[in-house]
Amino acid sequence: MTPGRSSEPPERTARPARVRVTSSRRDAATRRDLRPLTRDIDEQTDLGEVYMAGLMSAQLRLALRVLAFGAVGLGGLPLLFLLVPDTRTLEIGSVPFPWLVLGVLVYPIAILVARYYVRQSERIEREFSQVVGRT
Amino acid sequence: MNAVYGLTAIVLVCLVTLGVGAFGLRLSRTTSDFYVAGRAVTPYRNASAIGGEYLSAASFLGIAGLVYSSGFDMLWFPVGYTVGYVVLLVLVAAPLRRSGAYTLPDFAEARLESTRIRLLSSVLVVGIGWLYLLPQLQGAGLALRVVTGAPTWVGSLVVVVVVIANVAAGGMRSITLVQAMQYWLKLTAIAIPAFVLLGVWMADATPAPEIAGGMNAHWGEPLSGFGGQDHPVYVTYSTMLALALGTMGLPHVLVRFYTNPDGRAARRTTLTVVALLGIFYLFPPVYGVLGRVYLPELPEGLRPDSIVLALPSAVVPGTVGEVLSAVLAGGAFAAFLSTASGLTMSVAGVLDQDLLRGRLGRITGEDATVVQGFRLATVLAMVVPYAASRVVEPIGLATTVGLAFAVAGSTFCPLLVLGSWWRGLSTVGAAAGLLSGGFLAAGAVLITMLGGPLDGWPGALLGQPAAWTIPIAFCVAVIVSLATPGRVPRHTSRTMVRLHTPEDLQLERAPSHR
After folding, report:
1. Is residue B466 within 8 Å of B240, Cβ to Cβ?
2. pTM score, two decimals?
């Protein structure tokens, strides 16, 4: 949009020369390193609370995503049977479709969903540990 | 049915249960051993134990009986029992373990910092436990009558005696071992006869299920009345909700989570539980469907709940059928014993810690030891439901269990979910949620159990109350909490750190005043 702005600032040609500012002890530990985030959590500082809220909301969002999937998938079945009556008597290879879904298929799907949740929540915790626990 | 084979199987199961329990007794030394098996049970064994404890009379006999008499809609029961663990996994498994509490009242007290909430939870645990023990004892009486013709009180009494002996003697460690073994016992006992019966059925050129006269013509189709009830769509959804949200509130389920070493192990345990339950629940509907093929008319004097035990002799007459029936009878007894043990364990723990200890001490002048008190509580935990099982007419094993789920879902589900995830939960709000959910659900249960089945909307709404009682309990807890912000527990933030942070981080997890 404004191609010229960054390359040539119009009336600032008489700026002072840039000065590089550095510390004489660049290898010194910074404040953050001396004070791990776990202390912020222990002391319930605002920063610690932000990290805790982040962890909890990440876990809760994951949980709600899994529950929503289950609610739509399973909760949709009676609705499907109600609204599309043909599905009640549909047969797949001489096995009635409703029996196949509710008698067999639910279980492997439940296991896969549970496994997905366990992996994701462990990943969230690993990342939290890495960020907060670095020393 | 041959009484000798059946009795042999039942006696064998009882003896093995007592034997493994006695083996655990030698290992159980400290109080921690006694209650939570020293917290060092591996996820795999713990999952087997949870499965062993969870698969009750309702699962082993009840589901087949329901499918047999009411058809497709009853498949929601095993699905709900399994999905309940997925919900438990995603919402509360790790926080519960990390709370570091022994029992459900412990959790309530730790989170809400109130001994009144603790007492309220204790009363609810005992109530739900007794409601859930009732069908286990009724089922045992029913099974023993089918096998030997003995009156129903005998079978119930056998379970009472074996469970008291086992729980009072060894506590949780022995129970963990017994339960883990019993899952595999039950799976074998239900799977092998199912494969044999399916084989015979295929050799017979797979005859179709028959619908007897006077039965629902749409037996095999969804929404065909949910066991002859009105408003099947409502009942279907309400049952799903009760089972999905009630599982986490069952007292014997929660106590198992405390035996995991950490939160991560608690999640992995739950994942394994979902798998173990999924495998088991493939089988009970097989008996219901084959029952429709080979026993279209229920023999005189049988309840649908006994169809599992009666089926083998109808499919393969002679010794094979009798042996299969005996195997199933043994498995069914394993189911009664394991669920009843777990329930008794948690009910007795709560009775002992919260309701008896102080009073017992006063009566005996502090003479009673801790373990004696627990043993007394064990006896009490079993005797009350036994007495009730003599008085209350059975209304179907899975139905009674469904009511226990509805009460658990209306009380402990809001407490656990809001307690784990919402910082704004106040002590007053939690109490209001427990009381409102408890009163509504228990009221509906009492009307259904004592007043018999009702028709129309009242029957549907009271017969499966979860769809309205659970949302009401949640709303009451939230609204009252919002109205009483001053009563939010002081250490809520610290508690949240404990419930949600992984154990590998070095954090302060206990409230500062401890």
Report:
1. no
2. 0.86
